[in-house]
């Protein structure tokens, strides 16, 4: 098992799952392409996908660079917390956008931890 | 020749080409920054760029992780299908957004295939 | 010191810094999630973050592939120019969006240079 690669791929799968929900919401709420506005129900899940894209771009390089300097099990464990945090974020944002803070923190803190691990490795070793 | 790296770089070049078209459409349709709305012609090409960004973030890690476990020619071949699918998507979306399905499928299926190849490698080997 | 990894991580940190500014601008300008429109001050910093995301997705693969074929100090040096260009872009865009051209060029040209270096390496070596 390649744990770090597995976590990276699961983060991509989770993100594509949110993208599929956006596609379904287009039909459900009648928001026709190229519009990305017009119904708050659509906008919420669209923002979940976009925010996940925004974090994924930070997560993946941090994850792979951290894995060059730290044990794979540690790096994959922190990455797994990110996956969990994103699910919490999704459920909260779709229910009540103003309550997305906890899920956001649960997915942002692992990204910052991996960035710190990667920076420490890149500078000190 | 490093085929996998070449396909990854061509995917980035194709994406930047769409970004250049968005910049030109700003002038052509009179959509001034920071707005990204206001004229459907602009919004169509902007959505092509954004959707390509959304897929590229999934394609690149899937491509490079798949290449660790499978022959470079196979991985690069699937990646080349993605490039073709994105061109079909672009032409269709700009003409008639509702007909973007074929090009979308032609670029999404290779991403899913590379993800499956990468996941199989990361879990089984 | 791992210079290429350091530049990649600093590009991610810079991008997350812009994301934090977007979060603060939500409160400052009263733009409530899931909206990303409604006040030009918010839209400007939001566009800085999005445009940086758009470039980062091109920068990171170009940087790492270029580093396989060229000396790390050259690759990291070009990447450092990108970091500088993004700071210039940010300051200009927030002040006067129409004057963002110089900062954009200062960050886009290094991305294109790294892409050219990576393509030359992938094709010729």
Automatic annotation (TrEMBL), chains A, B, C:
Membrane topology: Multi-pass membrane protein
Protein localization: Membrane
Source superkingdom: Bacteria
Primary location: membrane
Keyword tRNA-binding in record: no
Residues passing through the membrane, by range: 6-25, 45-66, 72-89, 101-124
UniProt keyword list: Membrane, Transmembrane, Transmembrane helix
Record SUPFAM superfamilies: MAPEG domain-like
Pfam families found in the cross-reference section: MAPEG (PF01124)
Protein name stated in the entry: MAPEG family protein
């Amino acid at each position: 098992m390649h744990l770090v690669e597995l976590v990276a791929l699961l983060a991509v799968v989770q993100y594509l799952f949110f993208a599929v929900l956006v596609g379904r919401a287009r039909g459900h709420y009648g928001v026709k392409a190229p519009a990305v506005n017009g119904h708050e129900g659509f906008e919420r899940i669209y923002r979940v996908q976009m925010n996940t894209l925004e974090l994924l771009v930070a997560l993946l390089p941090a994850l792979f660079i951290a894995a060059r300097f730290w044990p794979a099990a540690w790096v994959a464990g922190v990455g797994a917390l990110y996956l969990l945090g994103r699910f919490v974020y999704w459920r909260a944002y779709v229910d009540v956008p103003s309550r997305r803070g906890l899920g956001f923190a649960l997915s942002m803190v692992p990204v910052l931890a991996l960035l710190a691990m990667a920076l420490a490795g890149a500078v000190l070793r």
